[in-house]
Structure formats: C-alpha cells, structure tokens
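Design job #97: recover the sequence.
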C-alpha cells in the first residue's frame, strides 16, 4: 500500500472513530425496581415496602420503587426513594423521638432490556430518629449487578452493569430536597460501549496522522 493510501485510510478511520465516539453513549437501557416478590423489609419488619418504628412515637420508613425508566448509557441513576415520616417527633434537644430496630431491605432490580433480575441488599443497624436527626444508614451488598450473570437472580445482564453506592444515609424527617426523602443513587454502564473520551483520542490521533502525511506528500 502506498503512503498516500495509508494517509487516506488513517484519515477515514479517524473520522469513523470520531463518529463512534459521538454515539458511544447512545445505547439505552430500561430497568425498574418495582415491588416484585422479594422486594421489601425483613428482619424486624413485616415485609412489604413500609417499615414501622419499634418503639417511641409512631413513625414509618417507606420505599417508593422506580417504575420502568429508560436511561442512556452511561448514566447516574435513581433506584428508588425512601421516605421517613414522624409527625409527632420533636427536635433532639426537646427529646420526643422514635426508634427503629435493625432491619434489611431487599431491592430487586429488573433489567427489562437484557431480561435479567438482580438484588441489592441493604442492611441497617436501625437507630433513633427525631424531627431534625436520623441515625439510620443502609449498607448495600453487592455493589454491582452484571455484567453477564454476576449478581443475577434470573437471566443475564449481558454487557450491562448496575452499581449502587456503598451506603445510603436516611435523612431526618425535616431534611432533604423533598422533605424526609432519600434517593438511592447508583450508576448504569455497559462494557460493550467504549468510553467516548478514549475513542476521541484514538480518532484524533489517526486523523492527525493522516493529515500530516498528506501535507508532506509531494503533489502528483
């Protein structure tokens, strides 16, 4: 192959990789954390999506699952929302509060696109709650579902991965962007989609090489 043809090929390849980089995050994944069997509270709770306090004034910790939602890949995602309510709690200084015993929460995730389900298990030692203070934290395991059958209850996640934060601190009843609400946050990604930044670097190098070679070639 002549140098001119190599230069042309490098330029064309560079442009193609730039196009790939632009569309690298174009894939979409649909998932949900609906209340399928196995979702909910355990160990000290009666099951389901609402946990009552163990002692003190009446209070509840409820989970609102994420319905079918489509995200581009990669994305920061929302797996659902915990809402802590204690209507008659006062501030910690006044001293009227409530208490939750240790519990677990099984958050079952369904990857609709790939046809798989998996489960994040949140474990909490419970704690005291006042109007302006919450001691409740959930520690999640595993931290990742997928790719393939890793962490799967059914099916395979293919090249898709779902990650959750290591812990979720439940905000006080008077706190949060929406009062009393804590979002369970995570990440969605796919091993099948190269990082756009990496593709851009490779594409830029090839495109630059092609242009440099073409400038140095004598006219024909």
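Job complete. Output follows.
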């Amino acid at each position: 192959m002549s140098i001119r043809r190599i230069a042309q090929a490098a330029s064309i390849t560079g442009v193609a990789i730039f196009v790939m980089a632009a569309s690298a995050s174009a894939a979409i994944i649909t998932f949900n954390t609906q209340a399928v069997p196995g979702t909910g509270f355990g160990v000290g709770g009666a099951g389901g999506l609402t946990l009552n306090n163990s002692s003190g004034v009446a209070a509840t910790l409820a989970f609102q699952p994420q319905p079918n939602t489509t995200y581009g890949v990669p994305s920061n995602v929302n797996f659902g929302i915990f809402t802590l309510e204690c209507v008659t709690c006062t501030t910690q200084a006044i001293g009227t509060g409530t208490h939750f015993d240790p519990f677990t929460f099984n958050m079952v995730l369904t990857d609709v696109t790939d046809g798989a389900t998996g489960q994040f298990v949140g474990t909490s030692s419970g704690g005291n709650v006042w109007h302006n203070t919450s001691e409740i934290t959930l520690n999640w395991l595993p931290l990742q579902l997928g790719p393939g059958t890793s962490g799967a209850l059914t099916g395979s996640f293919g090249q898709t991965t779902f990650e959750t934060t290591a812990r979720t601190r439940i905000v006080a009843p008077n706190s949060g962007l929406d009062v009393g609400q804590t979002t369970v946050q995570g990440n969605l990604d796919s091993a099948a989609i190269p990082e756009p930044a990496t593709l851009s670097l490779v594409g830029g190098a090839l495109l630059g090489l092609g242009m440099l070679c073409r400038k140095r070639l004598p006219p024909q």
